[in-house]
Amino acid sequence: MRELKNIEDNHISVPISKETAKKLKAGDYVYLTGTIYTARDAAHKRMDDALKGGEALPVDLEGQLIYYMGPSPAREGRPIGSAGPTTASRMDKYAPKLLDLGLGGMIGKGKRSQAVIDGIVRNGCVYFAAVGGAGALLSKCIKKSEVVAYEDLGTEAIRKLEIEDFPVIVVIDSEGNNLYETAITKYSRG
């Protein structure tokens, strides 16, 4: 794990500042604590339709992270069910516009389009990956879950999550370095 300067023990408070995002490098393991929002395909389409119609978004995106996730039902006594990441590329057609509106970053799994990478660089943002298949473990880092918009979308509604020590890996940093590309070079046999 790369030691981060001025970020104590690789723990980051979210929402994320531009200064913090710029310190992160592809391959860094970090733990997020604070507030994030969830949104998947249907919520992204609805936000895009709202913007096209001149309406305000249901949440202020400034510095926020969107976690591409739709949870399973919560067990008794828990705020949320299994909460693993979904494939990020499904949101690629919406992400550049949201980044330009102040979104601080995204959490998902899988590769991103060049347009998203360009939006990350242009806005000094970051793309984190959460471990797919570990939704039950990730849910233990979620301390509170509240639907804040588009309740009719069920699991795809926008949720506000309070998280603590949520583990992620920086995949694309604010300079456009992409772990999916550098890891191929580093670990391929020549």
TrEMBL record:
<feature type="domain" description="Fe-S hydro-lyase tartrate dehydratase beta-type catalytic">
    <location>
        <begin position="15"/>
        <end position="182"/>
    </location>
</feature>
<keyword id="KW-0456">Lyase</keyword>
<protein>
    <submittedName>
        <fullName>Fe-S-containing hydro-lyase</fullName>
    </submittedName>
</protein>
<comment type="similarity">
    <text>Belongs to the class-I fumarase family.</text>
</comment>
<dbReference type="InterPro" id="IPR036660">
    <property type="entry name" value="Fe-S_hydroAse_TtdB_cat_sf"/>
</dbReference>
<dbReference type="InterPro" id="IPR004647">
    <property type="entry name" value="Fe-S_hydro-lyase_TtdB-typ_cat"/>
</dbReference>
<dbReference type="Pfam" id="PF05683">
    <property type="entry name" value="Fumerase_C"/>
</dbReference>
